[in-house]
Amino acid sequence: MDFMSSGDFIPQLPISKTPPTPNELRIVDNLFKSEETLKIVFKEFKDAILIGVLFIIFSLPQIDTLIQKFAPVIVSGSAYFMFSFKALVFVIVYYFIKNLSSVTGKQR
Question: What pTM was computed for the model?
């Protein structure tokens, strides 16, 4: 199969001489932002990164020891109580960090 015969040559494509409208310019600007790739990735995945970091922190054995030291009555009965307590604290910390910008007055 000859790929050259199945496509259009760039010089033969039609060209519009009319200037783009402001709406078209805005669409192009949104599609082809000039931000760095790392900034885009961080913006898109900041929640996932935050959850991952919190998960790693709450999985540390030092956190288990700290919880057993400050809340022995709650977590002493079963491992399920420890998991439940850690999940509750995890959600509270995540909610606090996620909404920290509204507390400090900064907009995202």
Answer: 0.55
Nearest to 57 by CA among 10, 21, 90: 90
Report in angstroms the alpha-carbon separations of 62 from 6, 57, 58.
65, 9, 9
DSSP state of 77: S
Distance CA 64, CA 68 (A): 6
CB 50 within 8 A of CB 97: yes
Say how far apart CA 108 and CA 98 lie, in whole Å.
10
pLDDT of residue 6: 72
Cβ-proximal residues to 71 (8 Å cutoff; 6+ apart), any chain: 85
Please enumerate in sequence order all residues whose Cβ is within 8 A of that of 85, keeping only pairs 6 or more positions apart, or say none: 67, 71, 74, 75
Whole-number Å distance between alpha carbons of 106 and 36: 23
d(CA 92, CA 81): 16
